[in-house]
Amino acid sequence: MEETTTTKTEILDRRGLFKTGAAAVLGGTLLRSARAAEDDPAPGIAPPVGAPRSARDEQLIQLIKNGVTMEEIAALKNPIAATPQEAVRLLKAGNARFFSGQARRPEVSAQERRAQILGQTPFAVVLGCSDSRVPIEVVLDQGLGDIFVIRVAGNIVESSTLGSIEYAVEHLKSKVVVVMGHEGCGAVKAAMLSAGQRSAEPKNVQYLLDRIVPAVSNLPEIRDTKARMREAVIANVRRQVFHLKQNPVIQQAVKQNRITVIGAFYEITSGIVDFMETDEELRIDRSAVISSGRAR
């Protein structure tokens, strides 16, 4: 069998081809995406009729004409949502496509996928549950690089999840942070068991459940099991949002209008995500806050 050798020059040539080729594809995709938004806007989002090109768009076009590199494209790339409000609309539109059976399942070419190694600019951060029935990118119909996902059973806010969220807010230009619970959450259901039953669980599982217990300890009397579970999951979402909003990094970003922090509930049976955005929708029982402080 003949041995094939690859010279250093050939390797460099291939890398150069990859850089310029991927940049051209990526740049073209960015421009096509902008045009597609005008021609086929997502549900609930008005197209920017007659909107002039931004300075960034003009710079991007000029770079492509001059033989742009992948690094130059990556430096210009911003999240597809420019404001917290737009980010929320994009998430709602994506879920609307999903539950109505019109999901786009955003895909990218091999070149575009490789180009992502240069950096990421997700427009949203989602703290969701580890449940295998809740694939967040699918439920919200988003593609590679669109959302920064943190998954842990019970979608709890604690040191490791907070660190991930802080990183996304401070370094990745994300515009919205979502805490998303879901129908039939096993972690929430387990947190509703008696203290004796919970003590039979492994130590780390107990730690996780202890972060949920205060939210579900004072639920209103609800006879219907399904309705009671929904109330419990939503109560936990509200509690986690509350604790998230006590974080100094998050508080500063909200104050500067760089992000908004909201809650959400995913109904597995329908595919619909209900978003909780207002103070009233996210209000929690003050006794739950006191209990939560003791639990911690």
SSE inventory with pairings:
Blueprint: H1 8-39, H2 55-65, H3 70-76, H4 84-99, H5 110-115, E1 124-128, H6 136-139, E2 147-151, H7 159-171, E3 176-182, H8 186-191, H9 195-198, H10 203-210, H11 213-216, H12 225-245, H13 248-255, E4 260-266, E5 273-276, H14 286-295
Helix pairs in contact: 1-2, 1-3
Describe the structure.
This protein has 296 residues and is of the alpha/beta class. It folds into two domains: 8-76; 84-295, 3-Layer(aba) Sandwich (Beta-carbonic Anhydrase, Chain A), CATH 3.40.1050.10. It has 14 helices and five strands. The longest helix is centred in the N-terminal third of the chain and has 32 residues, at 8-39.
Cα(first) to Cα(last) distance is 66 Å
According to CATH, what is the class of the largest domain?
Answer: Alpha Beta
The number of strands is: 5
- Stated plainly, the CATH topology of the largest domain is called Beta-carbonic Anhydrase, Chain A
